[in-house]
Amino acid sequence: MSPERLPVFLARRHYRRRRVADAARLLPLTGAILFCLPLVWKGSPEGASTVGAMLFVFGLWVVLVVLSAVIARHLRADETEHPARDGAAEERPDTS
Amino acid sequence: MTVLNLLIVVCLSYVVLLFAVAFGADRAARLGRGSWLRSPIVYTLSLSIYCTAWTFYGAVGFAARSGLEFVTIYLGPTLVMIGWWWTLRRLVRVGRSQRITSIADLISSRYGKSNLLAVLVTVLAVVATTPYIALQLQSVTLSFAAFAETDPTATTLPDMQSTALWVAVGLALFTILFGTRNLDANERHHGVVMAIAMEAVVKLCALLAVGVFVVWGLAGGVAGTLERIEASGISRFEVSGARWVGLTMLSAMALLCLPRMFQVMVVENEHEDHLRTAAWAFPGYLLLMSLFVLPIAALGLDLLPTGANPDLFVLTLPLMEGRDGLAILSFLGGFSSATSMVIVAAIALSTMVSNHVVMPLWLHYSGTAAMVSGDMRNVALMARRLSIAGVLFLGYVYFRISGGGTALAAIGLIAFVGVAQFLPALMGGLFWRGATRTGALAGISIGAAVWLYCLFLPSFGPEMVVPQSVFDHGLFGLSWLRPRALFGAEGMDPVIHALMWSMLLNLAAFILGSLLSFPLPLERLQGAQFVNAVEHSGTQAGWSGGMAQSEDLLIMAQRIMGAHEAQALFAAAARRQGVAGYLPEPGPDFIQELERALAGSVGAATAHAMIAQIVGGTAVSVSDLMAVADETAQIMEYSSRLEVQSQELARTARQLRQTNEMLTHISVQKDEFLSQISHELRTPMTSIRAFSEILRDTGDLGPEEQKKYAAIIHDETVRLTRLLDDLLDLSVLENGQVDLNIQSGSLTGLLDRAVRAAGGETGDFVIRRDRKAEQIELTTDLDRLAQVFINLISNAHKYCEAQPAVLTIRPEVNGTQLVVDFIDNGSGIQASKQAMIFEKFSRIGVSKAGGAGLGLAICREIMARLGGDISYLPGQKGAAFRVRLPLEIDGPASQQGRSKEIRSKETDSP
Question: Where are the alpha helices (DSSP H) in B87-185?
Fold first, then answer.
């Protein structure tokens, strides 16, 4: 890969979009780890209650839905502006 | 009216409503209306077929037995959906760009379009889905029976078997009606999608309504509900870690691999962008579906007598409280869940069975495959319809045999493990270039075998399929082969045990097989395409063909896609290449486009095989090899660009050569014509001169002889006049000085007139017409159009050498265009002559000198003035001409403008 094809600095918007895509990738991993959290509570002496775990799971679920909506919105907003911006940077394949 | 009767009435009206919705949506889509059919919300709702009756009723039962654990079934899909950027985006993009028709098609396409792999996936999918369909039938009959039990006036309980049978027949009817409208499985089934979207709303509303009733009606608010849960038998969170994690993973895998999910998620996907909405809306839907499950389970355990089936709490709680309306709504929710799942599963499975099992077999046994005559389209559609009926029948038989017992209730998770066996091959194929066909075959086979042995067969219970001794001591007495304790893994939950071993062995076999085998070139190309789908669409295996094959390809495509679609595809490609008519250059791009179009109908493997039969082998070009080798060295790119350019040059040169040949040919013809026209003019002149001299010089001619000679002179002058008229007509038309005499009339009358003028039917010349289709009103210059028809009919009469000659006239309205085909049963016109026939002075078959070769040239000019065209239609049995014109010609003003424009263009050009 020649340096000319992958510049070190990207336009601010392009940089932002890539970070939003990173967030989109991280979200399911974070969710998966957090959904396993109730399993840890079983170890406590009095055990875990279903109601507690239920509130946690559903609360986390709502947060994930909202975050996913926000990320999806941003990914869309950026892509519709795609053709409007300078072509050279856009030609490059997205390294996803 | 009793509740049971009311239920039957409501249920039947609901079914009628479903048919109406599906019909309306199909109609709207066909008429080009209904952009709302393609909205991301409809897409998201259609994904909800993940929630089957098993989740609608079963989630509460699951929760009543093991508490919060039920939620794992929804958490997996939630994680996959919010992680759409990783996997689903790629899956949908590949599915759309490769025109994938099913999960079997995707896997087979990726691994070198291997049909063996497709058959394996199809068989496993059928085995895993059939019990699931039986489960849906069971849920409908059980919920129906629950109503019947509470109804004291019902004298006889409805027969479970007959309820299931009726449901199965109704579903088969619906699916066949709306699921096999068009052959191209890649086209959207708007009717079906709309119906299941509506069912998605119904089941969500039903479950929410029951939940609201339970929380605020029975438990007295949120706080009261939480207290009830605390007080119930499921208050402790005692989920095993392995099951919590394992089931979440399992449901995540199932979302990607279930044939029905693949159908709605990838095949029916209208636009990649819809995923963005589904990424949060579908998890939201799942959240709402599971929100009230625990409260309903806790209240059901509390209020209903012990021993009540927890799987039916959603139904029995409202029934017990006397809320019949709510109970009926709840029944409809369960009914919706069951029917939508069965419909989509049947469509998905039937596509797989017909494309990968029936069609290849049919092609194999029907002789010379691609080139045999007859319409394959109907065969494929019929295969799909029979497959739908077959799949539903299998589901019903399974239901009968299993007796609707509790074994069936556990089948949901068992089926999930079965389809999860596709995952390594699927994901490996999308992300790993090194994955090979051998690896995929090995992985899926071993995974499926472990699943069958450890989970599916034992699920029927001891002594049913697997003997008790095998359970206790293992196969052949080898204790490490016990189905519930493979390799000594004792004390594990059976589902998790089977999931772990099947996936581990599947993955190991897949990776080892891929590492040790060497892929075919086609496999490597497909691999590069699939893995790099998001980055760039890359190149595919190039086909190379010659001009002679274009017509064969058209004939084959017509038989699979239907004459209309095939001709449109070929004509569009020809237009893009700048070639007139219906036969484009069979360049690699075009053949690839055709292959994808065919793949949408019969699957990638079959399409590839059929094209290979006609075109020959696949040529792997430099640019393809580059994609495989992944060498991005610029020198290679440059050389490939050179190669493309030189191909382009060669093509241009060939076109130039063709044009040149045509010009030379025309010049020769022109010379011939001049000498011929002199001849044609001189012959009558000579006889006119001779006979007039006789009349002048011979004094003693009798009146009889005088009359005879005068008649000869008259006939010859008529002939001369006709020739000159034709020449004049052509020159007037060419100069655009013609005034159109626009009238309205029916096509029938016009054709009647033309047939009469052309001499009508005789013993050895038959004209076949479809008078019903000819009832078309058109507004144009009827006299000129009649002239064209007369010419075509008398040409067929003159040149068609079949005995008897049969001319078929087939009119058709295509939007605002009228298309009339004239097809005879003669030997047609050679491909090399087809380009020439509309040229002036061109005559085919010199021996039958009838006219001066001006007829078709005049026809072409007339059609251009009428705003249409006339073309030769290749790929029919004999010579075929297609006349196309607008039903209503533009006003005279614009007509004049156009002819003026043409004139000025013509005067400019020299």
Answer: 88-97, 103-110, 115-150, 160-179
B624 alpha-carbon distance from chain centroid: 28
For residues B469 and B302, what is the distance between their CA atoms, to the nearest angstrom? 41
Closest C-alpha among B745, B731, B728 to residue B889? B745
CB B540 within 8 A of CB B599: no
Write down the pLDDT at residue B85. Answer: 85
B380: region left, alpha or beta (phi > 0 left; psi from -120 to 50 alpha) = alpha
- pLDDT above 50 (res A81): no
Pick from B871, B863, B720, B866: nearest CA to B788 = B863
pTM of the model: 0.69
Q: How many CB pairs under 8 A join A and B?
A: 113
pLDDT in tens, B414-458: 889 999 999 999 999 988 888 999 999 999 999 999 999 888 888
Q: Is B242 on the interface with A (CB under 8 A)?
A: no
Contacts of B215 in chain A (CB under 8 A): none
Q: Find, among A72, A74, A33, the residue nearest to B82 by Cα.
A: A72
Per-residue model confidence (pLDDT) at position B488: 77
Contacts of B460 (CB under 8 A, 6+ apart): B402, B407, B466
B530: Cβ–Cβ under 8 A, 6 or more apart, which residues? B94, B98, B109, B110, B429, B430
Partner-chain contact A27 B226, CB within 8 Å? no
Contacts of B897 (CB under 8 A, 6+ apart): none
B219 neighbors B299 (Cβ within 8 angstroms): yes
Q: How many CB atoms lie within 10 A of CB B731?
A: 11
Report the candidate in B546, B653, B526 with the shortest Cα–Cα distance to residue B590.
Answer: B546
pLDDT at B140: 85
H-assigned helices in B517-585: 521-531, 550-561, 563-577
Residue B582 tokens, joined: 């219906």
DSSP annotation string for B409-462 = HTHHHHHHHHHHTTHHHHHHHHH-TT--HHHHHHHHHHHHHHHIIIIITGGG-T
B160: exposed, middle or buried (C-beta count within 10 Å: 0-12, 13-18, 19+)? buried
CA A37, CA B871: separation in Å to the nearest integer? 72
Q: How far is residue B278's CA from residue B270's CA, in Å, rounded to a whole number?
A: 13
Handedness of CA B227, B230, B234, B235 (dihedral sign): positive
* ipTM greater than 0.85: no
d(CA B335, CA B239): 31
- In the predicted model, what is the mean pLDDT of chain A? 72
Domains of chain B, first to last: 3-409 (1.20.1730.10), 422-534 (no CATH), 539-617 (no CATH), 635-734 (1.10.287.130), 743-908 (3.30.565.10)
B239 to chain A: nearest residue by CA? A39
Spatial distance between the Cα atoms of B336 and B315, rounded to a whole number of angstroms: 14
| B295–A contact, CB cutoff 8 A | no
> Which residue of chain A is at minimal alpha-carbon distance from B282?
A65
How far is it, in rounded angstroms, from Cα A70 to Cα A78?
Answer: 13
Segments in chain B below pLDDT 50: 368-373, 537-541, 545-548, 619, 628, 630-632, 846-849, 892-910
What is the per-residue pLDDT for B439?
93
Q: What are phi and psi of B878, to 5 degrees?
A: -120, -150
Cα separation, B755 vs B576, whole angstroms: 37
Q: How far is CA B706 from CA B683, B700, B719, in A?
A: 21, 10, 20
Q: Which of B83, B273, B276 sits opposite A27 (nearest CB)?
A: B83
Q: Output the pLDDT for position B143.
A: 83
In this prediction, residue B502 carries a pLDDT of 93
> Can you give the C-alpha Rg of chain A in angstroms?
20
